[in-house]
Design goal:
This protein is mainly alpha-helical. It has helices at about 5-15, 25-35, 40-60, 60-75, 85-105, 105-110, 115-135, 150-160, 170-180, 185-205, 205-210, 215-245, 250-265. The longest helix is centred in the C-terminal third of the chain and has 28 residues, at about 215-245.
């Protein structure tokens, strides 16, 4: 892997991880278009450590409070009635679907799921679902209203992002809007829900990313740091954006990108695998 490839993909990961447009799809497409090969699912998983580190730093106070409250609640029954204790459990419960499916479908995720025909389809279909959720969602509820059922449903929505093109944040935001949550609430929960799953996935795939002609440890470190810095800026921007604007811009972007990808594949300009 060249240094140019590492730098470009690090930037792409940081820009796209938190937007509902699928970072894994963008890494797959850009790798194929500009470098003639697939950087691989392992590269995506490890660079996500950088973007998840950005989440941890950005939400350090909230995450620390949730963790402390959860441990206190294990000993003190009175703490178990607090919203923070419930939210900590919802993050844990919501992580289970992607953890189980990620282990069971590991081979398919790293092979068949990275087919560009499938990615083009998921970009368009789940983009339209995101637009429908924005259109029909009541946006009445905040995170304090979330219950176990909603937490599980949002966990399964996140798990769909195991298929490139769906988008982890896009899946959870779409489900959150359909369930009646506000855009900022859906986005914040998406960030919190991703931390355990993405960190575990990145650490699990560290050995794979350095095999074959993949990046060196130094290259991987640089890509991850770039993803962290740009990801941090993207978090701050997205949280401000969704408070004041709809998310239709991401819907149109996904549909256009998917359509262009369909044309490129049909014309033989790109290989699907």
């Amino acid at each position: 892997m060249t240094w140019l490839e590492v730098l470009v993909l690090g930037v792409v990961q940081g820009l796209t991880e938190f937007l509902p447009i699928s970072s894994s799809a963008h890494l797959r497409i850009i790798s194929e278009v500009f470098f003639g090969r697939d950087a691989g699912a392992a590269f995506t998983a490890v660079t996500q450590l950088g973007t998840e580190a950005a989440v941890i730093v950005y939400f350090a106070k909230d995450i620390g409070h949730l963790a402390v409250t959860w441990f206190q609640g294990l000993r003190d029954p009175s703490v178990r009635k607090t919203p923070d204790y419930r939210m900590a459990w919802l993050v844990i419960i919501g992580t289970i679907p992607i953890g189980l499916l990620g282990v069971l479908l590991e081979d398919q995720i790293q092979t068949a799921a990275r087919n560009l025909w499938l990615i083009a389809t998921t970009l368009v279909v789940f983009g339209l679902l995101l637009g429908l959720a924005e259109r029909l969602g009541k946006q009445r509820y905040e995170l304090k209203h979330m219950g176990v059922t909603d937490g599980v449903l949002l966990g399964f929505a996140q798990a769909m992002a195991l298929v490139p093109g769906v988008s982890r944040s896009g899946g959870t935001i779409t489900a959150g809007l359909f369930l009646g949550y506000t855009r900022p609430a859906a986005v914040r929960y998406s960030f919190l829900l991703a931390i355990p799953a993405v960190v575990a996935s990145g650490l699990f795939q560290l050995p794979d990313v350095f095999s074959g002609d993949g990046p060196s440890p130094l290259q991987m470190t640089v890509a991850t740091v770039i993803a962290f810095v740009i990801g941090y800026v993207t978090i701050a921007w997205l949280l401000r954006y969704v408070e004041r604007h709809s998310i239709y811009v991401f819907v149109w972007y996904r549909v256009v990108l998917g359509a262009v990808l369909f044309v490129a594949l049909s014309a033989g300009w790109l290989a699907a695998t």
